[in-house]
Amino acid sequence: MLSVEDNKLLTETGPNTLMGKLLRRYWIPALLSDELPEPDCPPVRVKLLGEKLIAFRDSNNKVGLLDELCPHRKASLFFGRNEEGGLRCVYHGWKFDTCGKCVDMPSEPPESSFKNKVTIKSYPCRDVGGIIWTYMGPEDEMPELPILEWTLVPKSHRYFSRRIQENNYFQAIEGGIDSSHISFLHRNIQRSKTDAQKALANDRSPKFEVSKTDYGLQIGAKRKAAEETVYWRITQFLMPWYTMIPPFGPTRGGHAWVPMDDEHCWHWSFSWNPLEPLKEEELAEMRSGNDLHASLIPGTFRTVQNKDNDYQIDWELQASGQAFSGIRGIGMQDAAVQESAGSITDRSLEKLGTSDAAIIVARRVMIHAAKGLENGETPPGLDTSKQRVRAASVMLPEGIPFQEGAKELMELKPQDYLAAENE
Ligand code: FES
Ligand SMILES: [Fe+2]
Known about the structure:
By secondary structure, the protein is an alpha+beta fold. Helix content is about 20%, strand content about 25%. FE2/S2 (inorganic) cluster binds near residues 70, 75, 91, 92 and 94.
C-alpha cells in the first residue's frame, strides 16, 4: 500500500507537481508519425500531462506542437489552416510557426509590430522511428531521444498503435510489470501448448526477483517448468513508462503509458519483428484489434470494447474456460481490470502480496526519482548508452540467477536488428 500523500505524488502529473516535473524531463511519444501523413495536412489534437496541445506538420515537413488555444482570444487552433509554413487561427488569421512564433497578424495594421511580441507555448518535436516525440521540460535539460528497439527497425517490420485508457498512467504501468496476472487474466486453455505456456498455466504463483538498473528495472518472474528446470519471464521497465514484454515468438511487444491527464492515459502498443517484415496475417490481426492492439471507434482513440459496454464480456466464453476472463483481446482484458479499479485507484486501501514485488519497487523508484529531482538530482534512465536492452523468455536450470542465465538474451546487440537496417 501507499500513503495517501505518496499516492498523490505518484499519480498527479500536472506542470507544477513533483511527478509532472520528473516526467517532463523525458522525451514523450506524442503521436504516430502517420497521423500527420504529409506537409500541410490537418492538425491533430493531443493532450499530454494535462496540457491540451495541437500537433501539425508544416510545409517544410517540420512538426510543431502548440498550445491548443490561440493567444489572441483563445479559439482552438484545431480548426487552424495549415499553410505556408505555419498554422493560422481561423478566427482572425493570426499565424504561428512550429516554434510558437507569431509570423503573421493580418487583423492588425501593417505597420504594427505587435506580432513580434506575441508567442504561443510550443514544444520541440522529433519525427523518428514512426513516432512523433516531444519534450516538455526545461530547454537546457533536453536529453537525447531514447534508444528503444522498436524505433530502430524499418517500417515494414513494425506496427504501433495508441488509444485512450480511462485511468491514471501508473495503474497501467503496474499492469505492464505484473507478470503474475498472465496465468489468470490472459489465460486461454487452447494456447497451453508450448512448454512456456504450460509453465504459465501450471505454476500460478511465480517467484519475483527485481533488479534496479541504470535504465529502470529488470523484473524476473520464475515458474516451475519441469524437474530442475524453471521458466523465466523477464520484463524490462525503462524509465519512466516503457515496458518490454517477454516474447513468445519472433514478433516482440512493448508498451508505453503516457499521462493524458491524471485520470486518462495514452496506451501505446508496439509490435515489431527485428529481422523480418511483419507477415500479412500478423498485420491483419493487429489492425483488427487483436494481439496487443485494440479496435477503435472510427475517428476517435476510444476502444470499441469499453467500460460502457463492459468490454463486451462473453460470460459463456468465461464459463467454458477458453478465456479466463471472458473478454476478447489481451489489451482489452488489461483495460477492463485496470479501469475497473477506478480512474485513480486508492492505494492506501490495497493488500499487496509477494507477487506484487515489482510493483512495490517501481513505485519506490518513481517516487524517489521525483523527490530526487526536487533536491537537484539528475533523473534516472536518461543515459541512452544504457538503454540497449530486451525482454527475455527462457528456460534455465534451477539455481542459475536470471541475471546470469539470460544475460545474453537481455542485451540488444547490433546484429539483432542490423539485417533490418541494411534492407
Ligand atoms: S482567436 Fe485566434 S486570431 Fe483571434
Ligand atoms: Fe496484461
